[in-house]
Write a structure and sequence with these properties.
By secondary structure, this protein is an alpha+beta fold. It has a single domain, classed as Alpha-D-Glucose-1,6-Bisphosphate, Chain A, domain 4 (2-Layer Sandwich). About 30% of the residues lie in helices and about 40% in strands. It has a 7-stranded antiparallel beta sheet with strand order 1-7-6-5-4-3-2, covered by helices on one side. A hairpin with a 4-residue loop joins strand 4 and strand 5. The longest helix is centred in the last third of the chain and has 30 residues. The chain starts with a strand and ends with a helix.
Length: about 160
């Protein structure tokens, strides 16, 4: 199962890169899908990366991510994710952020892939794709708001205040 999204952010590429790459461990500060986040102490940073990954508490439980590609020259960051609550038929989760300068800001491409074991992937893939797509769309919306205004979504603000 694959999901691909593209977003235009009215902020300089370096600012968006800083949020996604340099501040990788702090996604919980701005993304609604993540209650809290911290650096993954078990993941060694790749050259140039501030951290090797992150551990997030999300609506699906704890998610541990390890950065697999960190390329500040071409603004590419990829990671593998493992969620404790994932069903047995999910063999792997990966994501890939790619940034490019675009007129008036930054083009953000996000590719997400879930490797699902047959036949369960065929049977359950549509439901999982819908759940993942909703979380990805919200995260992109949150990134745009955070990069352009420095503000979090009102739902995130409520969660942070609680």
């Amino acid at each position: 199962m694959q999901i691909a999204r593209t977003l235009h952010v009215k902020a300089p590429l370096e600012k968006v890169w800083s949020i996604l790459a340099d501040d990788y461990a702090t996604i919980g500060d701005w993304a609604r899908a993540v209650e809290q986040s911290a650096a993954n102490p078990d993941a060694a940073p790749l050259p140039g990366a501030a951290v090797g990954g992150r551990v997030c508490t999300a609506n699906i439980g704890e998610v541990t991510e390890t950065i697999t590609t960190f390329d500040p020259k071409f603004h590419v960051l990829a990671y593998q994710a493992k969620a404790k609550a994932m069903p047995f038929f999910v063999r792997g989760l990966t994501g890939r952020w790619t940034l490019e300068t675009a007129q008036g800001g930054t083009r953000v491409d996000l590719g997400f892939k879930a490797d699902l074991m047959p036949p369960f992937g065929t049977l359950m893939g549509w439901a999982m794709k819908r759940q993942f797509a909703t979380a990805i769309d919200e995260t992109l919306e949150d990134l745009k708001l955070w990069a352009e205004t420095g503000q979090v979504h009102p739902d995130k603000a409520k969660a942070l205040a609680a």
